[in-house]
Amino acid sequence: MPLIDVSGLERTFVVRRRAGFVRRTRSEVRAVHDLTFSVETGEMVGYIGPNGAGKSTTIKMLTGILVPTAGSLRVAGLDPSRQRTQLAQRIGVVFGQRTTLWWDLPLRDSFELLRKIYRIPDARYRENLDRFVELLDLGDQLDTPVRQLSLGQRMRGDITAALLHDPEILYLDEPTIGLDVVSKGRLREFLRALNAERSTTLLLTTHDLQDIEALCDRVIVIDHGTSVYDGSLGGLHAQGGSSRTLVVDLVDEGPPIDVPGAWVRKVEGPRQWLSFPTEASAAPVVAAVAAAYDVADLSIQEPDIEDVIRDLYSRGA
Ligand SMILES: Nc1ncnc2c1ncn2[C@@H]1O[C@H](COP(=O)(O)OP(=O)(O)OP(=O)(O)O)[C@@H](O)[C@H]1O
After folding, report:
1. Which residue's CA is the closest to the ligand 1 atom numbered 28?
2. Closest ligand 1 atom, CA of 58?
3. CA of 14 to the centre of ligand 1 (A)
4. DSSP per position, 83-138
5. pTM for this one?
6. Which CATH number is 4-238 given?
7. Quick check: CB of 49 below 6 Å from ligand 1?
């Protein structure tokens, strides 16, 4: 049986709105509709989609916070909403936007509280704490209250907190949001090592395509509550035909750049934006531009998730 098994899942919210002084209207929002997917142990899956697509609602059902309206759902063989306490021992959850740590307590005390809540055996707790503190470089912050930590330190604290009880599944909701490039890189490296060492299954919600590129072999795209793509990131790019962008600053304004393998999308004074296919190497395009034009500066922009999804729709997938 897959570790996560979702079939025909539905979740509807009833929304009541005031329509005049007394009258209220009642409408239904179908947040998740006919959603089916499964995840095997050790997979790292990106769960992506536009705002309001139903990602958080799915994660809340997977963790047992919300009860499905219909459909079937099994996580580690358990029914999440009915067996929430048992499930809590098997999963970890990290939210990039808010902390699950105690704001006024030093990190060390938050961890100690979690040891008691999850009844983690002493030896295992010590071993895990030492390992995560070392890998996440948190040694100097253990005695600092959470409210005094930087965003990156707090996030590393939150990840440690979510992992102390050895969960088989880790749900991460925008884990790298607001972090600088170095902190993002370090966090991704840690998650890769965790998956390799412990086969921890990762379900990752993010708007940062580089998180997915660095971590996930598989992406599930959800829109209007249902899965519209399930496969590799390469396959998603290929279906959507999304492109990367070469931003060229010319020394002087001029006509649109004309080089093989790329097309000009926008011109603003001496700056021009050229698109080229994601799967193609940037090197020949850069070389052709540099050989034929007076270039002051060049940079490459990767597509973000919204671009990829937009492309997917524009191709009618
Ligand atoms: N408690 C609720 N009551 C009413 N409607 C809700 C509730 N929670 C979510 N919704 C609606 O369900 C839909 C899916 O919301 P959800 O938060 O799951 O999307 P999301 O993909 O996580 O979005 P985002 O990327 O913006 O976080 C939206 O239309 C949202 O307004």
Report:
1. 52
2. 18
3. 12
4. SHHHHHTTEEEEESSS--S-TTSBHHHHHHHHHHHTT--HHHHHHHHHHHHHHTT-
5. 0.80
6. 3.40.50.300
7. yes
Lowest mean pLDDT among 127-136, 140-149, 305-314: 305-314
* Residue type present at position 112: E
- The residue contributing the CA closest to ligand 1 atom 29 is 52
Higher-confidence position of 285 and 96: 285
Tell me the C-alpha distance between 114 and 67, whole Å. 25
Is any ligand 1 atom within 6 A of the Cβ of residue 81?
no
In the chain, residues under CATH classification 3.40.50.300 are 4-238
Q: Cα(143)–Cα(267) distance, rounded to whole angstroms?
A: 53
Q: Where in the chain is the domain with CATH 3.30.70?
A: 242-314
Structure confidence at residue 317 as a pLDDT band (50, 70, 90): very low
- Pocket test of ligand 1: the residue of 29, 30, 32, 222 to mutate, having most ligand atoms within 8 Å of its CB, is 29
Most ligand 1 atoms within 8 A of CB, residue of 55, 58, 204 to mutate: 55
3-state secondary structure of 283: helix
25 CA to middle of ligand 1, Å? Answer: 19
Which ligand 1 atom minimizes the distance to the CA of 14? Answer: 4
What is the residue-averaged pLDDT of the chain? 90
CA distance 88 to 100: 14
Distance (angstroms) between ligand 1 centre and the Cα of 57 equals 6
Residue 16 near residue 24 (C-beta atoms within 8 A): yes
Residues 223-236 pLDDT 10s: 899 998 999 887 87
With a cut of 70, say whether residue 280 has pLDDT above it: yes
Selecting from 3.30.70, 3.40.50, 1.10.3470, 2.60.40, what CATH number does the domain 242-314 have? 3.30.70
